[in-house]
């Protein structure tokens, strides 16, 4: 637990033991720092953390005071939960920085090569729209998104039985901004957030940056988030929100059943716990009928649906959106103070692509290509990697989740494998980035977003050789 959190807990224990009345004034920041031998910054962080918990209140030019009993939150139960995601060690920081850095064979990012996307058509659209509507570039951008795009997002959602209101939509700079806004709208620093495990490493980093505590819930390859484990967690402690990637989970590729999605919504509605859904891979699921998001089963506005066109249309657009339900006003306010608005030229271009039917045609081709590439990559991994290697069977998306076998009873680690592969120009994402500690040290994520070539096959063969060497070395 960070030093400021330790100090905050001690302060509050002292307040409760002393029976301090509502409105009692706390020592100044300088006094606290001197009493406990900490810096002024640490003392101030401790007070601000207690303020975010509702236990104390700041009064301008007066200091901090004990809050009303009705506004306080108990900190006693917090110690039963895992602490905040620890600071990355030097190796993990290096590995995170390397994922996505240039390399010869791109098996690391969950993205497709340029040839998979209608880049030429977008180039023509951009030039025509910029000429016909110069205000899309020259005018100051305000608001929550261009009406044409919000209307098309609603129309697209109707095709997979998801009823959205254009007024609850906020266009964002990619799905990461949408997730960030959603988390900030429904949580405060110190809150416990249930997440699938393994899960997208950028989400874990985002939780750490927002001082939120991730509570891992197993994600089953065939069914998604384990709802029985989640229910037990909800019964035991103060989970303030849940984050799910129900369609084509990153990294295991699972798609939850409609029954499981409806049950998840019901479970959280009963407890008034917000659900944040990352559906960025929903449009690239492989089933003949696009699976509905969890939001489709929400009747109370309790689900904040986040998505983007980065994986399905053009990665460079960085164009996302959020349907925030009953939290719309909060999200709109946060969007304004975070980035104010999103550039409109690409919004209008995407809206035209959606309305013309070009997007549906593109998706059919993209899904078919991704499914083929995943199958070829999966066969190659099973052929070249050590006997006993397990490989996921994704129901959508770009990636495969690979689990290396134990050698003489000792689990292999993909950390040295990752570093050696990088020196040879081969990139992948090591498993330890997708969970806490060394939970997935024997796993790795591979990207199937690039067309199969002899170079990729040679890279998979070499990874298999390195995996065998690494297992014996461990």
Per-chain topology:
Elements: H1 3-18, H2 29-36, H3 40-52, E1 56-59, E2 63-66, H4 90-98, E3 105-106, H5 119-132, H6 135-138, H7 147-158, E4 169-172, H8 174-186, E5 192-197, H9 201-209, E6 213-220, E7 224-225, H10 227-236, E8 239-244, H11 258-271, E9 275-278, E10 303-308, E11 320-323, H12 328-338, H13 345-356, H14 358-384, E12 390-391, E13 399-403, H15 414-423, E14 426-427, E15 429-430, E16 443-447, H16 454-473
Parallel strand pairs: 3-14, 5-6, 5-8, 8-9, 9-10
Antiparallel strand pairs: 1-2, 4-11, 6-7, 10-11, 12-13, 13-16, 15-16
Helix pairs in contact: 1-3, 2-3, 5-13, 7-13, 8-9, 8-12, 14-16, 15-16
Characterize the structure shown:
This protein has 474 residues and is α/β, with parallel strands linked by helices. The chain has helices at 3-18, 29-36, 40-52, 90-98, 119-132, 135-138, 147-158, 174-186, 201-209, 227-236, 258-271, 328-338, 345-356, 358-384, 414-423, 454-473; strands at residues 56-59, 63-66, 105-106, 169-172, 192-197, 213-220, 224-225, 239-244, 275-278, 303-308, 320-323, 390-391, 399-403, 426-427, 429-430, 443-447. It has an eight-stranded mixed β-sheet, with helices on both faces. A four-stranded antiparallel β-sheet has the order 12-13-16-15. Helix 15 packs across helix 16 (454-473). It is globular, with a radius of gyration of 24 Å. The two termini are 31 Å apart.
